[in-house]
Design brief:
Blueprint (H helix, E strand, L loop, with lengths): L3 E4 L3 E2 L5 E7 L9 E8 L6 E7 L4 E3 L7 E6 L4 E6 L8 E9 L10 E2 L3 E5 L2
Parallel strand pairs: 2-11
Antiparallel strand pairs: 1-3, 3-8, 4-5, 4-9, 5-6, 7-8, 9-10, 9-11
């Protein structure tokens, strides 16, 4: 069972860049077939997939967020990071880091979740 832990500032001002980090309890986030992603849930709304990074380092982004989103990783720390630029109050959400193995499940079947972290965008 993979353990994922998000870390992020709880409060961000509009127009700033939000940075979230996910720490993963595995030997390596470059292990074959592993995918690491971000999903958010605004208050009163459904889940929104934001993007992911594969074991190969290839990144994938939601078309609606692609212009503002960047995902990177630090393999030495087994961490991956999401940066969301030019945030607005509409980016207020609970943010989850997620994981899956493509040799076990179809792509997009995120079966490992962090606890989530609340981020509020407000001046």
């Amino acid at each position: 069972q993979v353990q994922l832990q998000e870390s992020a500032p709880g409060l961000v001002k509009p127009s700033e860049t939000l940075s979230l980090t996910c720490s993963v309890s595995v030997d390596s986030i470059t292990a074959d077939y592993s995918y690491w992603g971000w999903i958010r849930q605004p208050p009163g709304k459904g889940l929104e997939w934001m993007g992911a990074i594969a074991f190969s380092g290839t990144t994938y982004y939601s078309p609606s967020l692609k212009s503002r989103t960047s995902i990177s990783r630090d393999t030495s720390k087994n961490q991956f990071t999401l940066q969301l630029s030019s945030v607005t109050p509409e980016d207020t959400s609970v943010y989850y880091c997620v994981a899956m193995q493509s040799n076990l499940n179809p792509l997009g079947y995120w079966d490992q979740w962090g606890q989530g972290t609340q981020v509020t965008v407000s001046s």
